[in-house]
Amino acid sequence: MPNATFYLAQEGSPQATVTGLIKYTVFLAQHFVKQGAKVYINANDKDQAETIAEALWQVEPSDFIGHNLVGEGPKYGTSIEIGHHGVKPLWNRQLVINLAENNTTFANKFNEVVDFVPCEEKAKQQARERYKIYRQAGYQLQTIAIENG
Questions:
Q1: Which of 3, 40, 66, 94 is the one with CA 20 to 30 A from 78?
Q2: Cα distance between residue 96 and residue 11, in whole Å
Q3: In a 10 Å sphere around its CB, with 0-12 CB exposed, 13-18 middle and 19+ buried, how is residue 111 labelled?
Q4: Where does the record locate the signal sequence feature (predicted)?
Q5: What pLDDT band is residue 130 in, cutting at 50, 70 and 90?
């Protein structure tokens, strides 16, 4: 059964900001790749995808993991591929980290989905809608509060 995990940002936490959420996404992507997953990061748009790619370049050299934007990189991809609405991963990925506000048409293409519930009310409502879509698609759902620190 596929799984979807929603990470809940806490008011006043670093992850409650756009920059903090991108840093947390980099942390999660590194974590999942170290466990052997091929990760797709679904950004809100091309600008955010490029920002995430840049954040992945800014890690310590010992923490660096190969990554590329969709359409760039080696033929069979890298451990982390970054895209946005309107583009698709070049090849099969096990896990998607979703930063897009309302694009969930990919839900049935991944065994594992990571999504976020931001603090802002409109964004929370969009997350609730994505939650419903995952549930209707047959995903086993869980929520995890992001620990500060």
A1: 3
A2: 25
A3: middle
A4: none
A5: very high
Q: Tell which residue, 3, 11, 41, has the closest CA to residue 25.
A: 41
Distance CA 22, CA 52 (A): 6
Q: Whole-angstrom Cα distance, residue 117 to residue 63?
A: 26
Question: Rounded distance, CA 92 to CA 11, Å?
Answer: 35
Residue of 33, 75, 76, 72 whose CA lies nearest to 53: 72
State pLDDT tens for residues 37-58. Answer: 999 999 999 999 999 999 999 9
Instruction: Enter the tokens of residue 19.
Output: 């920059």
117 contacts 68 by C-beta, under 8 angstroms = no
For 55-97, the pLDDT digits (tens) are: 999 999 999 999 999 988 787 779 999 999 888 887 778 899 9
**HEC secondary structure over 123-137:** HHHHHHHHHHHHHHC
**Whole-structure pTM value:** 0.92
* Topology of domain 3-145, CATH: Rossmann fold (3.40.50)
> Would you say how long the chain is, in residues?
149
